[in-house]
């Protein structure tokens, strides 16, 4: 029991340590930001925009991308051959912006995001490929900053910030938003520095030649973004992460607890697949391999400790344990509770950076929801393990639009890897 | 890779303004990961400066160590803490009697962890005096931290060194820091917290560790809590104008609360948090200490306990106390010295509150802060000297050193001379020898002793439950229950000044004193230690 406590406490402390990376000193915080661009537009961008049953948000997204201040970019919208509604929206947008928007039709029988992206790769003509999702709100100045970041750092990959914004929708969306905040604001920077990074799903920019050499995305992986990051960093690609509150790509959280669970299951299962593929073994240093292993197993450790720590505490209080052991079971609570304290500070910071009003209710959600949210993550992790080992590797898409699309996943559910 | 084989039918127009298709990776314009702090700062305790601080510390420790067993006379409290540390080290719990939350236990847990040190040096003599050796590393840490805090408060090397020496060589320090007091642990942790919170790198984890160190200080001696505002001031000042201040505060609070909570948690898990019939409790102990403990009077009232105590401190060294008091007031106005000044002010105010309880070792907590503010005001004065007057500084320095040598030197010399030579514990040593060698049937005898000799008796072969702290006779029902025949179950009484101090309040001890005859006596008249045999036949 003491051993379990020590292991749990170590895990929680290491996670906390890394999560707080960006705020370690004022200097580290300053280094996580985009540098001010020099106004020069030297690179050309091909922005890939896979859309599937997302006709209601796609047009707005394209319109917003077209407002980019950068001079050299094209938008490649990828639609499925079985999805005429979205295709119609895409073609209309292409007609309205000739020379900027290209529509590519994906004829794969089994549809998922990596395959859609691979379909578009041969059409890419820019120096840099950028990936966005159909519901993203992209800032018009983002490309300029990315252009400058590529040139000033000599990076192969630039990962911009992604932020869920609708923290006020429900208690779990608040936790979800904060997860993104800590991940993109802080943790990813540590990964970039250590040379092992699971990339995010969008606002990610890769040099086209590097991407082509790496054979694009893995069409069978459920976390193609993570996989790409692992493969690129294993081959020594230089990744730069930059976060600027005003420039982040804004997204929305899954609208129901069920879809959050599905999304998280998919990610976790994807992490497992990446772990099993073993590309990370090519990382040059032992420390990087350890970080890789730890990161990819992370969700499962987190799930385990989310459940084990409360059980330990309950045992300490209700069972008649010797006092020393009972106290030891509380040791993992220290980093866990510190995490909640830092999340509270993070929520305040989040509110300030995005000019959102954080009410006492939201702090209450944060503190009271911490354990239920850990439970949700645990269920997702268990579900991922179960699905992976029973061979169910299909793509459970998270719906981003209204209720009329709830049965849209049926088509995507049919396939097997 | 699964892509469609369908050839491109439509394309976008040539991407406009594509001036360069190749990314120039050969010459990055900006270094990639520039995480170096803009203001590179030397570490304080490394290199030549480390040698200086280490050398001065060694000097002070030499004065502290010589004759550590002979002076000052062992106090009852030392015996108490040592016996409790012994209980921890031997796995008997937090005390050898029922632990009643009188103090948080961390200090004697640390003492127990250090208890192997005296054995290393083969120190002779009674247990309490030998165990003083274990305090030397703690004092060493305290001295170095005084230096470090001085430097981190922005003082010059010479001022920080002066602070270390003023603190370390004051006869009051040499006297008090030789003894085994919880306050020494507590103040060391608090100085550690202060040093961490003043971290020049403003690292989040330093702030968090500072919170933990504050909690450890309070868990070493609860009264250290009053200096918390000083650390908070330092935290606020050091994190000012930085983008990470809210995180620093969060980190500090996490460390403080999450480490500090283990003490009430211990009480809670044992079912001893709230008062109730039939058991001790943490909150009950607090209620007793805050409400029922009789005060020691005002320090301004002649004849009161506090007054006498302050007089005895002033007897050992008026210099550091008066100079410290005088330096504290202006130091409050100097921004960078404010944390130390706030600590000193609070500690002084607590000491002079009317009707409060002032323990004998209270001064231990004040001394380092006084030394820091004195050094700080010296530093301020030194900087005020105009730099363009070349000969002013050396001249003033010479005058200052000469003044110190003539005014303070003789006084400190005399005080420390006594510390280096006096044999105040000869009586205790002889009594311990007598108890170990001259009392027949030690395994069957019941002895009543003061706290100083308790561990020596246990080590000499008396059964642990038959060696009784004198005041437990009257105050601990568990002890009374072990003696069906009352005072007649006692065979020997060791009468010491501590035991005779307060005769009215302990009737059983008084009975023993009247129904006993002196078998052996040691020491001078005012510190007389008597081994008395109980006369069981005579009726009281």
Automatic annotation (TrEMBL), chain A:
Source lineage: Bacteria, Bacillati, Actinomycetota, Actinomycetes, Micromonosporales
Protein name: Glycosyltransferase
Pfam families recorded: Glyco_tranf_2_3
InterPro entries to which the protein is assigned, alphabetical: Nucleotide-diphossugar_trans (IPR029044)
Species in which this protein is naturally found: Actinoplanes sandaracinus
Entry's transmembrane regions: 296-318, 325-342, 362-386
SUPFAM superfamilies, A to Z: Nucleotide-diphospho-sugar transferases
UniProt key word Transmembrane helix: yes
Family membership noted in the UniProt record: Belongs to the glycosyltransferase 2 family.
MF terms in GO: glycosyltransferase activity
From TrEMBL, chain B:
ArnT-like N-terminal domain ranges (all copies): 128-237
Source lineage: Bacteria, Bacillati, Actinomycetota, Actinomycetes, Micromonosporales
Protein name: Glycosyltransferase family 39 protein
Enzyme Commission number(s): 2.4.-.-
Main subcellular location: membrane
Domain of life: Bacteria
Keyword Transmembrane recorded: yes
Signal peptide range: none
Keywords: Cell membrane, Glycosyltransferase, Membrane, Transferase, Transmembrane, Transmembrane helix
Protein location: Cell membrane
Main EC class the enzyme belongs to: transferase
InterPro entries xref list: ArnT-like_N (IPR003342), LipidA_mod_glycosyltrf_83 (IPR050297)
Topology term for the membrane: Multi-pass membrane protein
Transmembrane segments: 51-71, 130-149, 155-173, 180-198, 247-269, 313-333, 362-382, 394-413
Keyword check for Ribosomal protein: no
Pfam families for this protein: PMT
A single MF term (Gene Ontology): glycosyltransferase activity
């Amino acid at each position: 029991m003491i051993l379990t406590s020590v292991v749990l406490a170590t895990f929680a402390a290491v996670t906390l340590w890394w999560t707080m990376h960006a705020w370690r000193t004022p200097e580290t915080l300053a280094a996580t930001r985009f540098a001010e661009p020099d106004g020069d537009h030297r690179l050309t961008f091909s922005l890939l925009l896979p859309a599937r049953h997302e006709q209601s948000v796609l047009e707005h997204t394209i319109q917003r991308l077209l407002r980019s201040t950068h001079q050299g970019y094209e938008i490649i919208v990828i639609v499925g051959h079985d999805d005429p509604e979205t295709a119609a929206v895409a073609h209309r947008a292409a007609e309205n912006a000739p020379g900027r928007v290209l529509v590519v039709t994906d004829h794969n029988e089994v549809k998922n995001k990596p395959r859609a992206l691979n379909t578009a790769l041969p059409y890419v003509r820019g120096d840099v490929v950028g990936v966005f999702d159909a519901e993203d709100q992209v800032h018009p100045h983002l490309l300029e900053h990315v252009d400058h970041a590529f040139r000033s750092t000599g990076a192969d990959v630039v990962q911009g910030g992604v932020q869920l914004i609708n923290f006020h929708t429900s208690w779990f969306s608040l936790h979800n938003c904060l997860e993104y905040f800590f991940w993109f604001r802080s943790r990813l920077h540590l990964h970039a520095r250590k040379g092992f990074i699971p990339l995010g799903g969008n606002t990610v920019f890769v040099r086209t030649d590097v991407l082509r050499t790496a054979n694009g995305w893995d069409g069978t992986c459920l976390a193609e973004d993570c996989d790409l990051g692992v493969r690129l960093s294993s081959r020594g690609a230089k990744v730069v992460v930059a976060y600027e509150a005003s420039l982040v790509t804004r997204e929305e959280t899954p609208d129901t607890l069920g879809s959050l669970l599905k999304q998280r299951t998919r990610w976790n299962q994807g992490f497992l697949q990446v772990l099993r593929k073993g590309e990370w073994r090519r990382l040059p240093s032992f420390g990087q391999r350890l970080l890789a292993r730890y990161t990819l197993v992370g969700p499962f450790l987190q799930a385990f400790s989310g459940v084990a720590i409360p059980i330990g505490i309950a045992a300490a209080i209700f069972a008649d344990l010797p006092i020393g052991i009972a106290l030891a079971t509380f040791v993992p609570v220290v980093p866990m509770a510190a995490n909640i304290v830092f999340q509270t500070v993070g929520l305040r910071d989040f509110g300030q950076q995005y000019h959102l009003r954080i009410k006492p209710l939201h702090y209450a959600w944060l503190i009271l929801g911490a354990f239920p949210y850990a439970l949700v993550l645990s269920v997702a992790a268990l579900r991922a393990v179960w699905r992976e080992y029973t061979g169910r590797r299909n793509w459970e898409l998270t719906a981003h639009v209204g209720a009329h699309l709830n049965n849209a996943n049926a088509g995507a559910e049919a396939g097997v890897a | 890779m699964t892509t469609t084989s369908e050839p491109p039918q439509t394309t976008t127009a040539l991407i406009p303004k594509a001036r360069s298709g190749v990314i120039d990776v050969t010459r990055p314009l900006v270094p990639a990961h520039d995480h170096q702090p803009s203001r590179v700062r030397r570490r304080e305790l490394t290199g030549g400066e480390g040698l200086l601080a280490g050398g001065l510390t060694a000097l002070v420790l030499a004065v502290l160590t010589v004759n550590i067993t002979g002076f000052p006379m062992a106090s009852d409290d030392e015996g108490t803490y040592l016996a409790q540390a012994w209980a921890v080290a031997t796995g008997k719990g937090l005390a050898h009697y029922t632990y009643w939350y009188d103090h948080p236990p961390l200090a004697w847990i640390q003492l127990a962890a250090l208890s192997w040190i005296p054995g290393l040096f083969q120190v002779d003599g009674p247990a309490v005096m030998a165990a003083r050796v274990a305090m030397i590393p703690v004092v060493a840490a305290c001295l170095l931290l005084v230096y470090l805090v001085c430097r981190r408060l922005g003082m010059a090397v010479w001022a920080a060194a002066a602070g270390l020496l003023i603190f370390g060589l004051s006869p009051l320090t040499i006297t008090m820091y030789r003894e085994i007091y919880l306050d020494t642990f507590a103040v060391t942790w608090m100085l550690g917290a202060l040093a961490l919170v003043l971290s020049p790198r403003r690292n989040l984890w330093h702030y968090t560790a500072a919170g933990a160190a504050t909690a450890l200080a309070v868990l070493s001696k609860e009264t250290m809590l009053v200096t918390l505002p000083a650390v908070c001031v330092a935290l606020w000042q050091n994190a000012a104008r930085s983008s990470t201040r809210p995180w620093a505060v969060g980190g500090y609070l996490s460390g403080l609360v999450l480490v500090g909570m283990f003490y009430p948690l211990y009480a809670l898990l044992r079912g001893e948090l709230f008062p109730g019939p039939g058991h001790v409790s943490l909150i009950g102990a607090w209620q007793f200490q805050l409400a029922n403990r009789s005060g020691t009077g005002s320090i301004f009232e002649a004849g009161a306990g506090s007054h006498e105590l302050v007089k005895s401190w002033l007897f050992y060294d008026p210099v550091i106390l008066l100079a410290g008091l005088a330096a504290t007031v202006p130091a409050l106005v100097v921004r960078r010295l404010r944390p130390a000044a706030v600590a000193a002010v609070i500690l002084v105010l607590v000491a002079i509150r009317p009707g409060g309880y002032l323990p004998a070792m209270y001064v231990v907590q004040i001394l380092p802060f006084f030394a820091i503010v004195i050094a700080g005001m010296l530093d301020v004065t030194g900087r005020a000297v105009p730099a363009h007057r070349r000969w002013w500084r050396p001249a003033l320095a010479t005058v200052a050193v000469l003044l110190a040598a003539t005014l303070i030197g003789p006084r400190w010399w005399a005080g420390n001379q006594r510390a280096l030579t006096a044999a105040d514990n000869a009586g205790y040593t002889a009594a311990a020898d007598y108890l170990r060698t001259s009392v027949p049937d030690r395994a069957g005898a019941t002895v009543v002793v003061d706290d100083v000799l308790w561990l020596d008796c246990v080590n000499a072969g008396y059964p642990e439950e038959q060696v009784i702290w004198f005041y437990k006779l009257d105050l601990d029902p568990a002890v009374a229950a072990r003696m069906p025949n009352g005072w007649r179950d006692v065979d020997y009484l060791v009468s010491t000044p501590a035991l005779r101090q307060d005769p009215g309040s302990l009737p059983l001890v008084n009975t023993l004193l009247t129904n006993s005859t002196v078998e052996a006596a040691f020491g001078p008249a005012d510190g007389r230690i008597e081994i008395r045999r109980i006369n069981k036949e005579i009726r009281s």
